[in-house]
Amino acid sequence: MASPQYTAEQPQYHTEQPAMQPIQEKNYPQQGLPEQPMAQQPVPANNFASATPLVSLQQGPAPVDCPVCRVRQMTRVEFVSGGTTHLIAILCCLGLCCGCVPYLTTWFKDVEHKCGNCGALLAVWHRSGRVEVIAHATT
């Protein structure tokens, strides 16, 4: 005996697509606006994307917006003797008789930040971690 074979009928779908027609270019009337060249952004003289706030300055140089000359420039740093330097010198003098060591190294000195463009004193970073802002915006 032969077993009957069952065949599943596949549904037939219509897959006819309309013929694609080429797109024709149409000439639309101008709106009457004169052609203007694209406005170009001024290119900064430096490549600093953001500036560091003066109150956030640390030991090293950082890009700042100078409130005096209004230019974004990297600060110049200069190590100067401050209160911490003098205190360490006194302690070294009393204990080891070498009070000149703190004045010869930058480890115990404060850092003055000056504008890289105009040279104005902007802020002083003290060894204690406090930042003293010197330059204020001029009107």
Features:
139 residues; alpha+beta; two-stranded antiparallel sheet
How do the helices and strands line up, and which of them pair or pack?
Elements: E1 63-65, E2 72-74, E3 76-80, H1 83-95, H2 101-104, E4 110-114, E5 121-125, E6 131-133
Antiparallel strand pairs: 1-2, 3-4, 4-5, 5-6
Membrane topology: Peripheral membrane protein
Keywords: Membrane, Metal-binding, Zinc
GO molecular function: zinc ion binding
Please give the number of β-strands: 6
Order of helices and strands: EEEHHEEE
Low-confidence stretches: none
Q: Helix tally?
A: 2
What is the beta-strand fraction?
A: 15-25%
Query: What oligomeric state best describes the polypeptide chains here?
Result: single chain
Amino- and carboxy-terminal Cα gap = 108 Å
Taking all Cα atoms into account, the compactness measure Rg is 37 Å
Helical residue percent band: 10-25%
Overall mean pLDDT stands at 77
Broad shape:
elongated
Q: Give me the secondary-structure category.
A: alpha+beta
Major sheet size, sense and barrel closure: 4 strands, antiparallel
Order of strands across the main sheet? 3-4-5-6
Biased composition (Polar residues): 1-15
Keywords: Membrane, Metal-binding, Zinc
Membrane topology: Peripheral membrane protein
Family: Belongs to the CDIP1/LITAF family.
